[in-house]
Amino acid sequence: MAAQPLFTLAVVADIQYADKGDGHFEARTQRFREAPAKLRAAVDAMLAEHAGDGTGGIAGSGGGGCGGLAAALSLGDIVDGYGDAPDAAARAASDLEFIAAELERLEGAGVPLRHVPGNHCFAVPRGALLRRLGFPAGSSGYYSAPLGPGWRLIALDTTDVSLFGHEEGTPNAAEARRWLGAHPTSEHPNAQTWNGGLSAQQFAWLRAELAAAKAEGQRAVVACHHPLAPGSAPAHYLAWDHAAIRAALESAPGTAAFALTGHYHPGGACEVNGIHYVTLEGLVEASTGSNAFAFVDFFADRVEIRGHGAATSRVLPLPAA
What we know:
Blueprint: E1 7-12, E2 23-25, E3 28-30, H1 35-50, E4 71-74, H2 88-108, E5 113-115, H3 126-132, E6 143-146, E7 151-155, H4 171-182, H5 200-215, E8 219-223, H6 242-250, E9 256-261, E10 268-272, E11 275-279, E12 292-298, E13 302-309, E14 314-317
Parallel strand pairs: 1-4, 4-5, 7-8, 8-9, 9-11
Antiparallel strand pairs: 1-12, 2-3, 6-7, 10-11, 12-13, 13-14
């Protein structure tokens, strides 16, 4: 196997910082106040990797990438929010500023920083969030960007149709209410208020992006917050239209090769019709003294994930281009 990857991507999911006591959900603990120190350590490791001081890869892989990190990617939910507290909006905005500044140390070292929106992110209003995180001008939360040689990032917004970041009565919020009303959880376990999906406009954009990538001989890394395939997360964590998104990806065989998501903090992975779906473990639930982030090394014939702390290391073979 090739000793050096074509390029390396740094990834973190569900930082979910808030200045409040631990949370508990599904018998798991969310350590909100520990997030800044863990993120600082993760960014330090990413900066060391970018400078060529990484600790190496999976046994036999030959270590990290050439020429520094191609990008760093946050998979959403970088803050948690404070519910209906009177000062919730101001506190969430302060938390966003704090975490964004920590991540921007990467940009200061020349590492492009990419985000996808998560449901908890909308403790901050959508417009303010997208502006602060540097989404492309005019973006509705989804965009594409170049990665390393022969690859592009297609970043989806699975809160596009949801109850997050959309005022009541707006078309996206109304569509979300209709979707939930038509999909009882007894038949659709993912019909939960913490999930969401893509608008028709975003689906059209996704198909056009895949067609453009195929025409240019590129492969695509697809990234979004909500998991897209059974097996990568329990059914009640999946995006509302996960099957339709997978069908769109499968319509461009050999192009959409790999998908990265967050949202389900314990993580998971599966392969469906030749596409790998990986849910990265959430930093907010990493145990005290541990962490959760990863480096993703891209080769011509495989993707290798070098997990740190709670994040799982994986080797994912790719079909011939």
